[in-house]
Structure formats: structure tokens, C-alpha cells
Structure of Peptidoglycan-N-acetylglucosamine deacetylase:
Amino acid sequence: MLNFRNTTVAFAVVLILLITTNVGWGWYLLLLVVYLSILFYGSYSIHSQFFVKTICSGSTNEKKIAITFDDGPQQQFTPQILELLRKYNVKATFFCIGKNAASHPLLLKQIYEQGHHIGSHSYAHGFWFDLLTARQMQADLQQAHELFQKELSVNIKWFRPPYGVTTPPMKKALQQMNYTAIGWSARSLDTMIQDEERLFLRLKRFLKPGAIFLFHDCSAITVQVLPRFLEYVQEQGFEVVPLFNLINLPPYAD
């Protein structure tokens, strides 16, 4: 399996071989480019498991899927999302940004009290989050953890990396927090695609047993397409189940 350790060992072995054969500098440059390209792929492909072991789908042949929402809670669209989920009797997982939850504690509690589950999406979701040290990441995660604990009296265990980027410092921080990284198999791109038909067609392509769908509860297009998608899921004989049922992993510590 391609991962950070195996790749680095292979890089070191090839580097030693190049040194012993006394080749030109062009080979060293080529080796460096290949190595950095693999690291870049591993960091930005959450499915690769390159730096951090990440759950991206459920292991099932049954027609069951889970849906998740990132970046909330926020006042404009989260209540509309919750009302749609109530209407269709669907339980979802909300990977909340800590600072947004701190700004909307009542909305955070509403999500939880309506039977949905809460995961961490970091506290600040800063643009440079993936460049933080392990200690800085852990401090950020701890701040969010304490907020959710204070407001909901739960100790969360699930974490979704901001931007889907993983790094060696993140692996260390997650180990310290005893968190499980949760990815996705179906990225809706609902913060980028603003055409409902195009978004719906994309969602249809990803519908398969065990799929984990990634939406955002901060986008108007999500509110528009969600009813259509949920009705299509039902028409195809699929069931939307809570994420913990799909991956057989509890969202909170005892």
C-alpha cells in the first residue's frame, strides 16, 4: 500500500543507489520531483490513506448511504436543511466549525436534539490549517472539542479535515485526540456548482451502496437540490442511514 512511510523508504533507497552510481544531477532532480508529486497527491487525496487512515465509505452491499454536512452551523441555510431532513425522516452528520458553533449555540443544540450527529471540522477552519504544526492543530481541535462538550455534553470522536487535506502533523494531532478521520466517497461540490440540474446529475452518479455524501449547510443550491436528491434515493430503493450505522463506529466516546 502506498503511504508516507513506504514512499520515503523507497525514496531513500533510490537516492542511495543514485549516489553510488554517480549519475548526473538531472536524475536527482527527477527523483525529487517524483517524490514531491507523490506527497502532494497523498496530501490532497483524502481517499489515498497516504498520511492519515480515513474512513471514506461503508463496507456494505446493501442499498444504504449516509449524508454529511460541513462548515455550519450558520443561520441562513442550516435551519432549512434541518427542516428538509425532518420532512424526509433522515438523520445526518454535521461536521461543524467550532467558531460557527460558538456563534450559534442554539442552532448547534437544535441539530443535536433533532437526532443528528456532530463531528469536528476544526475550530477555526483557517486557510493555512494544513500547514500548522501538530501542537497547533491539537490546540485548535481541543478548543472545538471543549466547545462541543460544553454545549452538548458529548465527547466527539469524528473529525473531517478542512479542505480534505491530510498531513503528518495532522496524523499526530488526531492520535493525541483519539479521533477518527472521516472522509467521503461522494463530493457534491455544492459550494462550486451553482446549476441545480448539473449538481443533481453529479449526485446521481455517486449513488451506490456504502456511499458517504458530502454537502455543505452554507449553500443555497444545497437547499434547492436536497429534496430532489432524497426523493431520487428513495425511488432507487436506497435508504439514508445515520453514519455510525454505515461505518459501525460510534460518534462519541462513552
Observations:
- The longest helix spans residues 25-44.
- The longest strand covers residues 64-70.
- The radius of gyration is 20 Å.
- The mean pLDDT is 94.
